């Protein structure tokens, strides 16, 4: 099936990025959030981003205008019943996501694919209250979605082969690199990546080196684009903690969160979104 219209549920950082990717790929994107201002702010942030891209010569001015026209604010799921795909990008909480999909399942026609953007949570559980689970799937976009090519495509226990193919074809069409995987805790990238992040935090806590030098060592030594501590700030330290706690429960003590990470989350230093994490983002 060809996906020509879609809806993003949740207009935070991830939702904005996913919407921009899809609109840039030529797809009409409905944008919904329970907080009305979040929709307005999300569309504003995308428009600002594409204007900057046009100013830098990376896209044409006409392309920037076309992307802006494909972003459509909606105040309810009912307003987007004509879509082919819904991608949910709300907070990383199983119960919140389950409620979203229970509501979507009751409203969206049976041909609409329902996808969850989660970095590690179980797709089968998230979709457990839907009546047509074969149309459900996981799409783990990486942050920031506009820059990161990878999207893990997690097949739930009852997800159909047709749904997997449609989503992979769509992701290819909007310039992403889809990688299919099993619905298993952490999928591939979160399972491997969160260990890297946690060990970076442990090194800092144990005084092995400074935050700057830990990241420098990993960037220079492994040819990574960013170090583990900068990556943690980008992801959000609260999200890192949630993923580690979930994987520690399911896969064992190798994923036990660093005590320093817990302290920083309790202190409200969550990374870029709060201005302070392992690095200070309040300075211009």
Please supply descriptive tags for the structure shown above.
284 residues, Rossmann fold, 14% strand, alpha/beta, single chain, N-(1-d-carboxylethyl)-l-norvaline Dehydrogenase, domain 2, globular
Report what the structure shows:
- This protein is an alpha/beta fold and 284 residues long.
- It folds into two domains: 5-182, NAD(P)-binding Rossmann-like Domain (Rossmann fold, 3-Layer(aba) Sandwich), CATH 3.40.50.720; 194-274, N-(1-d-carboxylethyl)-l-norvaline Dehydrogenase, domain 2.
- It has helices spanning 13-24, 36-55, 61-69, 94-107, 123-126, 161-173, 189-205, 211-222, 228-235, 237-251, 259-266, and strands at residues 5-9, 28-32, 71-73, 85-88, 113-116, 136-141, 150-155, 177-182.
- The protein has an eight-stranded mixed beta sheet, with helices on both faces.
- α2 runs antiparallel to α3, α7 crosses α10 (237-251) and α10 (237-251) packs across α11 (259-266).
- It starts with a strand and ends in an 18-residue tail after the last helix.
Overview in brief:
The protein has 284 residues and is α/β, with parallel strands linked by helices. Helices cover 46% and strands 14% of the residues.
């Amino acid at each position: 099936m060809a996906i020509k219209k879609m809806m993003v549920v949740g207009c935070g950082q991830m939702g904005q990025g996913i919407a921009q990717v899809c609109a840039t790929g030529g797809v009409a994107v409905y944008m919904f959030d329970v907080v009305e201002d979040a929709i307005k702010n999300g569309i504003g942030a995308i428009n600002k981003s594409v204007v900057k891209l046009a100013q830098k010569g990376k896209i044409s001015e006409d392309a920037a205008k076309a992307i802006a026209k494909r972003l459509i604010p909606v105040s309810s799921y009912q307003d987007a019943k004509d879509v082919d795909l819904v991608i949910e990008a709300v907070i990383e909480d199983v119960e919140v996501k389950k409620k979203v999909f229970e509501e979507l399942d009751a409203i969206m026609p049976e041909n609409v694919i329902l996808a969850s953007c989660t970095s590690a949570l179980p797709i089968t559980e998230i979709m457990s209250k839907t009546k047509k689970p074969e149309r459900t799937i996981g799409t783990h976009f990486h942050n920031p979605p506009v820059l990161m090519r990878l999207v893990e495509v997690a097949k739930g226990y009852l997800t159909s082969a047709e749904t997997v193919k449609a989503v992979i074809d769509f992701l290819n069409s909007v310039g992403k690199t889809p990688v299919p995987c099993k619905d298993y805790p952490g999928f591939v990238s979160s399972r491997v990546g969160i260990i890297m992040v946690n060990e970076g935090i442990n090194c800092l806590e144990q005084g092995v080196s400074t935050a700057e030098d830990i990241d420098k060592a990993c960037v220079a030594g492994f040819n990574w684009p960013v170090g583990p501590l900068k990556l943690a700030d980008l992801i959000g330290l609260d999200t890192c903690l949630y993923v580690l706690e979930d994987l520690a429960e399911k896969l064992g003590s190798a994923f036990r969160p660093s005590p320093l990470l817990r302290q920083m989350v309790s202190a409200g230093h969550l990374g870029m979104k709060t201005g302070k994490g392992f690095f200070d983002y309040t300075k211009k």
